[in-house]
């Protein structure tokens, strides 16, 4: 159900852009909406980060995935159980750049052998592989797009393009990322549909970004490989956006506006959705803190007052039996005012 | 274990997902699948709200009139105090990597025991109450209205989470269901919903000093009794100091070690070791609990119960604290103690009086784990051991969740065991160390009324144990957690019959050659040692 609603939503957004452009609202879709989208994205993203950061981290609660630092002759697993900030940064870098936690993934199966149940674990790295592939392709494609927003084109962007098209297949030259990102997105989508556990937990907000990204990618692919969109016109328009003097080039077809509209939707949707995991992963208290609370003092900014059942109160409760059992006491029995009840 | 199905019946697990969406399914409370509610007098004594007699099977849970407001405000307050909570409500992408990592899901197949969905139970309310999209779009945005059924569902599923953090290890963003469960339980407590198996130990620990409510004279009696057993086995008389001022070390262990088999053998092991090395220590009846059920209740209660350790160390004038084998006690000490109740300038950085080793890793908390301490002794050859006394044992080691994923305590206990026994076998790698499985009874769920749920949750651990039993004839599973020592016994009886459970220091004490001891013919359980029977 959510699957179809997400699909229809994206279809509706596409149609909206098409109809809008065909009815002459070209400047709206070429400039106004993208400007708004970038604004919403930037402010939303920053707002969300500030909102998270406003809540303190009262306790260091790292998930320790390896041996702690202890006795000299016991080898510490610095990356999975960092004892200081330096190693924590290392842990985070691997987490963000290589999805290290997801790499651990296994899948469990209950099977029978010799009349006995066996809980078996299998390596399950597909999600890690396709997840990583998607994110890196997205990054590369993102970088490649700076060709459209910069003049002269920076060497980094040219380098990215060169590497991406190094296989030199076809004309225009096929970018590997274009192919891989489609595959990765399809894997992520189909996994949601065909893995019954993942389907059961999936919400509209899980399908929608996948359809949206697929639509962005496919409209982009269409323009590059099939539709032969006027790239010079596109660059004129994108450059004009960057220079805050938007122009509309007539030779640029509707498909470009649809592509741009999808991107705008993505930007506006981003800060209010699960896509914010991009910013959130850096703040995760189970990963970005060293496991050093036995070594260093940390302050809880809202530390509640220390209230507990004191030893004095305890001894008052049990003094008699303690004395009888020969346990030392602070106040001897005769010192206790036996007459407390009488005094009242 | 009256209503518990046989392993064959229980293994009929359906991992396919229901037709009906999870928001539309309600939990059914039946005898055996829920924990008993806390008694009103207990709730009242520790100052929690809404004490009353009620049952989860009732339609009306007698919530306070303004319960929705209480929950809303409670959530808002916690969102502003814990970044973990706020972040974990926002960034889950529902990738499902955690789904088959939870022992309760593996053993039961209930979709709401997938960590992602367990958290969604709370997230859906968060979206409805605190996000614009959720308020406007409702179900389309994954939000649902707060109803009494939701509250009941929280009770049902957040007391089917042992806060073991296994899911957190695999989560690409480190989302920790233990944090989510802790928040949900705190929220439920605001409405007077808690379970007796947690709240009674909390009450006892607060007033009597330990979970079991053992009063000081009884505590001394038990220790005397255990010392008699030690004398019977070794011929050596030990008289451990108690509540005495001026000793270098105060030793604190979970009260389960003083009270129940097989924890008592571990306790005897501690005493024998201390005697042998001549440690200047004292026990305390006031701080006679290492475990902290406050962790399963609220951060404030955790702090309150934990405060006694430093207070007692200061009163007795000890220099540092030595802690016994316990799971969540060590998570509290490692992650919370110093922040809650430190710093403790009246203590000194722990230094072993026997080896001179300074425990730099405990520089701040001033508290050392007995396995660290003993490993250090062994490394420096300060104790003599005869591991052949344990030759009738084929031992494996169960990593307890809390020292594993809340501390990173893996090598120390293994080193100690390997010095004390000659036959040691690891369970499969996917089930030990940081990937270890829960005993199924952690976080206050080691109560008999939910034995079926515990056995389900114990399937992955039990199966791994059965594996080494089959492959290597393992007949003893050692562990460093008092809750494990209680819960793993029925678990092993159920999933791998014939395997016993022991603490690590029980094994050490059996191997320990004590000065002036008589020839050992019995182990600490007063069972004849094979091949060493008395002539």
UniProtKB/TrEMBL annotation, chain A:
Q: Which SUPFAM superfamilies match?
A: Respiratory nitrate reductase 1 gamma chain
* Highest taxon listed in the record's lineage: Bacteria
Mind telling me which InterPro entries this protein's record contains? DsrM, NarG-like_domain, NarG-like_sf
- Keyword check for Membrane: yes
GO cellular component terms attached to this protein's record: plasma membrane
Cell compartments where the protein resides: Cell membrane
Q: Which UniProt keywords apply?
A: Cell membrane, Membrane, Oxidoreductase, Transmembrane, Transmembrane helix
| Molecular function GO labels | oxidoreductase activity
- Cite the Pfam families for this sequence: Nitrate_red_gam
Q: Which residues form the signal peptide?
A: none
Transmembrane helix: is it a keyword of this entry?
yes
What residues form the membrane-spanning segments?
27-50, 126-146, 174-194, 206-227, 247-270
Domain named NarG-like is located at 94-278
Annotated membrane topology is: Multi-pass membrane protein
Designated name of the protein: Menaquinol oxidoreductase
- Organism this protein belongs to: Oceanidesulfovibrio marinus
From TrEMBL, chain B:
What is the top-level taxon of the source organism? Answer: Bacteria
* Sorted UniProt keywords: 4Fe-4S, Electron transport, Iron, Iron-sulfur, Metal-binding, Transport
4Fe-4S ferredoxin-type domain residues are 152-181
Keyword Iron in record = yes
Q: Which Gene3D superfamilies match?
A: Alpha-helical ferredoxin
UniProt GO molecular function: 4 iron, 4 sulfur cluster binding; metal ion binding
Signal peptide location: none
Extract the NCBIfam families matched here.
DsrK
Instruction: Give the protein name, as stated in the record.
Output: (Fe-S)-binding protein
Which organism does this sequence originate in?
Oceanidesulfovibrio marinus
Organism ancestry: Bacteria, Pseudomonadati, Thermodesulfobacteriota, Desulfovibrionia, Desulfovibrionales
């Amino acid at each position: 159900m959510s699957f179809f609603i997400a699909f229809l939503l994206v279809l509706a957004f596409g149609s909206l852009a098409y109809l809008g452009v065909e009815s002459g609202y070209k400047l709206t879709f070429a400039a106004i909406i993208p400007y708004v989208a970038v604004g919403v994205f930037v402010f939303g993203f920053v707002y969300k980060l500030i909102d998270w950061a406003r809540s303190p981290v009262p306790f260091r609660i790292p998930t320790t995935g390896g041996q702690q630092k202890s006795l000299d002759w016991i080898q510490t697993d610095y990356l999975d159980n960092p004892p200081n900030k330096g190693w924590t940064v290392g842990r985070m870098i691997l987490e963000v750049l290589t999805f290290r936690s997801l790499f651990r993934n296994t899948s469990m199966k209950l099977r029978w052998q010799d009349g006995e149940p066996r809980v078996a674990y299998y390596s399950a790295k597909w999600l890690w592989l396709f997840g990583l592939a998607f994110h890196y392709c997205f990054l590369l494609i993102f970088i490649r797009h700076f060709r459209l927003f910069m003049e002269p084109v920076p060497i980094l962007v040219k380098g990215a393009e060169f590497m991406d098209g190094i296989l030199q297949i076809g004309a225009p030259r096929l970018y590997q990322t274009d192919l891989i990102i489609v595959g990765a997105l399809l894997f992520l989508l189909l996994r949601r549909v065909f893995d019954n556990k993942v389907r059961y937990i999936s919400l509209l907000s899980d399908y929608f970004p996948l359809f949206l990204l697929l639509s962005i990618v496919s409209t982009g692919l269409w323009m590059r490989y099939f539709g032969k969109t006027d790239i010079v016109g596109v660059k004129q328009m994108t450059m004009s956006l960057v220079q805050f003097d938007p122009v509309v080039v007539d030779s640029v077809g509707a498909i470009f506006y649809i592509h741009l509209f999808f991107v705008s939707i993505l930007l506006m949707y981003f800060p209010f959705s699960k896509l914010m995991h991009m910013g959130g992963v850096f703040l995760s208290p189970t990963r970005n803190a060293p496991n050093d609370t036995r070594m260093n003092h940390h302050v809880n900014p809202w530390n509640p007052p220390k209230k507990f059942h004191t030893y004095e109160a305890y001894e008052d409760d049990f003094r008699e039996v303690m004395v009888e059992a020969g346990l030392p006491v602070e106040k001897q029995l005769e010192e206790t005012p036996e007459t407390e009840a009488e005094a009242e | 274990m009256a209503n518990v199905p046989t392993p064959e019946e229980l293994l009929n697990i359906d991992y396919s997902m229901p037709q009906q969406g999870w928001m539309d399914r309600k939990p059914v409370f039946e005898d055996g699948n829920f924990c008993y509610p806390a008694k009103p007098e207990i709730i009242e004594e520790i100052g929690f709200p809404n004490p009353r007699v009620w049952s989860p099977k009732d339609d009306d849970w007698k919530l306070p009139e303004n319960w929705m407001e209480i929950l809303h405000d409670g959530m808002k307050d916690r969102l502003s105090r814990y970044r973990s909570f706020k972040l974990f409500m926002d960034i889950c992408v529902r990738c499902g990597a955690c789904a088959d990592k939870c022992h309760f899901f593996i053993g039961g197949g209930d979709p709401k025991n997938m960590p992602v969905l367990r958290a969604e139970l709370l997230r859906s309310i968060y979206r409805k109450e605190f996000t614009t999209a959720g308020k406007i779009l409702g179900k389309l945005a994954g939000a649902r209205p707060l109803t009494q059924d939701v509250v009941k569902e929280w009770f049902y599923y957040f007391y089917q989470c042992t806060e073991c953090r296994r899911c957190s290890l695999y989560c690409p963003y480190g989302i920790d269901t233990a944090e989510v469960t802790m928040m949900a339980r705190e929220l439920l407590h605001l409405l007077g919903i808690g379970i007796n198996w947690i709240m009674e130990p909390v009450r006892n620990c607060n007033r009597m000093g330990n979970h079991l409510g053992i009063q000081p004279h009884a505590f001394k009696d038990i220790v005397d009794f255990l010392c008699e057993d030690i004398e019977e086995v070794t011929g050596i008389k030990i008289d451990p100091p108690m509540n005495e001022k001026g000793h270098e070390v105060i030793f604190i262990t979970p009260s389960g070690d003083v009270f129940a088999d097989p924890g008592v053998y571990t306790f005897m092991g501690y005493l024998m070791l201390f005697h042998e090395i001549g440690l200047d220590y004292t026990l305390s009846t006031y701080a006679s609990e290492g475990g902290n059920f406050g962790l399963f209740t609220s951060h404030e209660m955790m702090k309150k119960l934990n405060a006694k350790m430093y207070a007692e160390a200061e009163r007795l004038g000890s220099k540092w604290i030595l802690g016994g084998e316990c799971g969540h006690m060590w998570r509290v000490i490692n992650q919370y103690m110093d922040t809650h109740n430190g710093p403790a300038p009246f203590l000194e950085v722990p230094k072993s009086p026997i080896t001179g080793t300074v425990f730099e890793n405990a520089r701040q908390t001033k508290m050392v784990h007995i396995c660290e301490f003993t490993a250090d002794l062994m490394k420096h050859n300060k104790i003599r051991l005869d591991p052949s006394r344990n030759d009738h044992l084929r031992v494996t080691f169960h990593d307890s969740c809390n020292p594993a994923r809340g501390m990173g305590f893996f090598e120390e206990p293994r080193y100690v065991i390997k010095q004390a026994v000659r036959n040691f076998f690891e369970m499969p790698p996917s089930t030990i160390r940081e990937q270890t499985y829960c005993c199924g009874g952690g976080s206050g769920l080691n109560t008999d009324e939910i034995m079926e749920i515990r056995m389900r949750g114990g399937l992955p651990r039990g199966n791994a144990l059965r594996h080494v039993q089959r492959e290597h004839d393992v007949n003893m599973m050692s562990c460093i957690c008092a809750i494990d020592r209680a819960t793993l016994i029925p678990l092993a009886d159920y999933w791998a019959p014939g395997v016993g459970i022991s603490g690590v220091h029980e094994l050490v004490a059996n191997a320990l050659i004590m000065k002036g001891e008589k020839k050992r013919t019995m182990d600490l359980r007063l069972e004849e040692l094979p091949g060493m029977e008395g002539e």
